[in-house]
Amino acid sequence: MEVSESTLKTIPIKEEVVEPSEYLKRRDREKFNIESVQVLPPKLGQKDFGKIKIKYKLPVYKVVLGS
Q: Are the beta carbons of 14 and 35 closer than 8 angstroms?
């Protein structure tokens, strides 16, 4: 049986802009790692609730797909 060595490339994320619904999920899951939160209001004419900018105490690592 052949075993191939493969690694996942990750990048550290210190700040992230997300939808309000995604923020509510992360607030519970990562509450001890959230340093600050900033509400980014929607622009005139948009039909959404704006975005939420999360700043983390420690970086969150995201997997990069592709090469």
A: no
